[in-house]
Write a structure and sequence with these properties.
With 252 residues, the protein is of the alpha/beta class. It has helices spanning 16-31, 47-54, 80-84, 95-101, 105-117, 130-134, 138-149, 179-198, 200-205, 219-223, 240-251; strands at 5-9, 37-41, 59-63, 89-92, 121-126, 162-165, 207-210, 230-233. Strands 7-6-5-4-3-2-1-8 form an eight-stranded parallel sheet. The two termini are 14 Å apart.
C-alpha cells in the first residue's frame, strides 16, 4: 500500500512572519490526521523558521527548487547541499519554472540527480499544456518529460522519488481535470513509463500526486482514484481550513 501524501506549494507567498503565523495555525489540525504524509514547501526565506516550528511533528518540509551544483559562483542560486540541511523534499520541474524560467527536461534531470545525491526526495512535476491536451499529445508529452527527467538514473526504491501530475491548463485556473481523466494519465502513461525504465515493482511503489486547482470540495474525488496517491496543492495550501480539509480527505 502506498501511503498518501499531500504537499503544500506556497509559491512566492508569505513573508517569514506570515509563514510562522500560518504554520502555527496549521499544525494543531494537521497533527491529528493520521495515515497521510504531509509536506509544507514555503519560500527559501522561510525554510529555517518553518523548520523550527515543525520540530517534533510528523509534518515534513520541502523546498520549491534547487540548482544542480553543490556550490560555486552561481549568484542567486540555492544548492542541494544547502536545502538538505533544512528539508526532506524538493519540488523539481514545476510548470511555472518551465514556463517562466526556461527550465527544460535536461535541466530538470540535472536537478533530480543533484537532489538524490544529497539525500533529498524529488517531487518531479510533469504535465501538458492546454494546446498539447487539445492536440491529443498528453501521453507523448508526459512520457517524454518522465523519460528525460529521470534519464541516467539507477533507481530501485520506489520511495526515492514522488511524481506530481499537474496538467498545466488546470494550475491556478480553477479548472481541475476530472478525477477519472487524471487517473487515466497516471495509470496508462506515468506508471507504464516508470515500469519500462525501472521495473514493475518500482512503478507500483512510486507515489503519484495530482496537482491543479485541488480544493477541499474536489479532493476526495481525486483521492478515491486507485492510482492517485495524494496532491500537490497550490493556492489552497495557504488557507488553514482548506488545506487541513484536503489533508483530512487524503487520510480518510
Amino acid at each position: 500500500m502506498r501511503e498518501p501524501l499531500v504537499a503544500g506549494n506556497w509559491k512566492m507567498y508569505k513573508s517569514v512572519a506570515e509563514a510562522r503565523h500560518l504554520v502555527s495555525e496549521l499544525v494543531p489540525g494537521m497533527q491529528s490526521i493520521e495515515g497521510v504524509g504531509k509536506v509544507l514547501c514555503p519560500p527559501f526565506t522561510a525554510l529555517l523558521a518553518v523548520r523550527a516550528l515543525l520540530e517534533g511533528t510528523d509534518i515534513a518540509i520541502g523546498a520549491q527548487n534547487i540548482y544542480w551544483e553543490a556550490s560555486g559562483a552561481y549568484t542567486g542560486e540555492i544548492s542541494p547541499a544547502m536545502v538538505a540541511e533544512l528539508c526532506q523534499y524538493v519540488i523539481i520541474g514545476h510548470s511555472e519554472r518551465r514556463a517562466y524560467f526556461g527550465e527544460t527536461n535536461t535541466s530538470v534531470n540535472r536537478k533530480v540527480h543533484a537532489a538524490l545525491s544529497h539525500g533529498l526526495i524529488p517531487i518531479l512535476c510533469v504535465g501538458e499544456t492546454l494546446e498539447e491536451n487539445d492536440g491529443n499529445r498528453t501521453a507523448e508529452v508526459v512520457s517524454n518529460q518522465l523519460q528525460e527527467g529521470l534519464a541516467r538514473l539507477d533507481l530501485e526504491d520506489g520511495n526515492a522519488i514522488i511524481i506530481a501530475y499537474e496538467p498545466v491548463w488546470a494550475i491556478g485556473t480553477g479548472k481541475a481535470a476530472t478525477a477519472e481523466g487524471a487517473n487515466s494519465v497516471v495509470a496508462d502513461v506515468i506508471r507504464p513509463t516508470l515500469a519500462e525504465a525501472f521495473g514493475e515493482t518500482f512503478s507500483a511503489l512510486v507515489r503519484v500526486l495530482y496537482g491543479g486547482s485541488v480544493k477541499s470540495d474536489n479532493a476526495k474525488e481525486f483521492f478515491a482514484q486507485p492510482d492517485i496517491d495524494g496532491a500537490l496543492v497550490g493556492g489552497a495550501s495557504l488557507t488553514v481550513d482548506e488545506f487541513t480539509a484536503i489533508v483530512h480527505a487524503a487520510g480518510s
